[in-house]
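User: structure tokens for this one?
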Amino acid sequence: MTRPALFSGQTDVSVPMPGLAEIPDGYADIRTRPAKSDRMEGLTGLRALAALWVVGFHYSFGAFAYLYPAGSLRVIRLGYLGVDLFFTLSGFVIWHVHAADFHQPTVPAFRRFIGLRLARLYPVYLFTMLLFVVIVVLGPALGDPSFNPRNYEPGQFLVDLFMLQSWGLTDHLNWNYPAWSVSAEMFCYILFPFLAFGLRKLNNGLVMSAAVALPLALAACYSTIFGHTMNVTLGGPVLLRAAAEFTEGCLLRRIVDVVPVRRIRWTVPILLMIVATEAMFVLQSRLADFMPVLVFPFVILAASSRANPIGRLASSKPFVLVGAASYSLYLMQAPVEKGARFLLAYVAHGTALECAAAVCGYIAILGVSTALVHRYVENPSRRSLRQLVAA
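Assistant:
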């Protein structure tokens, strides 16, 4: 199984990717702030869950492969679906914050929107790309033979630098491999002004119908174009995957305006859907890997309100704190995995105690580096660039 990579985000939100803890700083206009009742911290907490899910998946095939966690835990093996959760979350939040900007898709509105999105995404993206350059240069110099030159080609660096790696310009992931989803997210942002203009023209009945039909159409793509896996990361299939889920998120946010979905107690229906998903795995259904994607819209609706246990859990302080730094976490996972390779020998061949210490070391390095990047790169650059765009 290939290792995919994360939202923005991931998609992205200003409380990194989607979590409107103060309407995501990354999305909201500097001049606008939501009322306290309109803050949906649960979406930020949900973003934390998605990011950790993807990191667990990547590390289970990388740094922690010797522990075989992916083979023993199905939930880790499906961690690539965290990206699908990101894409849907992103559409939900982007619609919440920016749909009103595109009653008409004007050039100034489009330019401002893309400027705000780049201000949110690009500083950390560029920082991690440059960090990878340092790691790749120093690795061989320090005698580490693990760097495959094919994964660090100078020409592909330029493709990645312009966030085009998921657009069909390469046949394999390069450099900071999880960043492919940021590339796909930018594709969705370019589509959004036209999507917002079109979806606003639909009446409520058509919006509800589209929200139901879109996941079914994606399931058809999963069974045909995607080859029975959602783990597609390059070219047309991934752009289709991202755009469909992003659009579904937009539709969900429109539905919230016309249907009192936040009053629904989602916990029991979601648990029943999870049980149905598990049953499909037991029965070895070919749709089993896709089933969680059908659950995500309901999880997002549940997390957007504190009126149910899922929303209250996702809004808890630990989830919100991790969610706020989830974009930095997502993009730092690969540099840390490569940069801390000196710990691999202990994971693979050390005693049980040494192995446990090495795993804890990896987690600590990732946590500390994420916190530092979030505080000293992501937050200040976002504020400065957004002020520049709004000027």
